[in-house]
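User: Okay, second chain of the day. Same drill as before: sequence in, structure tokens out.
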Amino acid sequence: MLELDIINGCKRKDEKAYRQCYEACAPYVYSIIKNYISDDDYRRDAMQEVFSQIFLSIDRYDSSLGKFKSWIAQITIYQCVTLLRKRNRISMIIPLEPGVEVADMNELLDPLSKEEIEKLLHTMPEGYKTVFLLNVIDGYKHKEIADMLGITISSSRSQLSRAIKWIKNNLSCETKNYIYG
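Assistant: Same drill. Structure tokens below.
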């Protein structure tokens, strides 16, 4: 994604390297942000926060511990969650009665294109979407999600179940035309 000399230039606080880093990474960062944040104004704020955090903490990036792309993805996700929490956008988390079955996500999502999944996520309530993205898309465990969002592990599991139920309901025959149309 980014050459080591540009990363080292950022570590030396070289303005040209900052610009090159931003230009190379902005599309990737934005693709993560738009999954988590629906509002355009919030997306701009998130871009600012993410790149501020990247540049402030770039001295701590160690290429022997992982790829730069993974490192900035973690920063991006964390900043999105932080922004959503600050703006009380995750407040839609609702307790769920036990017994909701978690479906096989591959079976649900495989027939859909990337654009269809993005359209579906755009209409999903923020609380459901955040937990769904963190768990299913980004691979965080429920304990990690609970810590990030300041909720219980059972609430994280409940929100994932609610998200899956919401997806099933919105993929029903009567709403397929709305989602795909």
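The radius of gyration is 18 Å.

User: Thanks, on to the next one.
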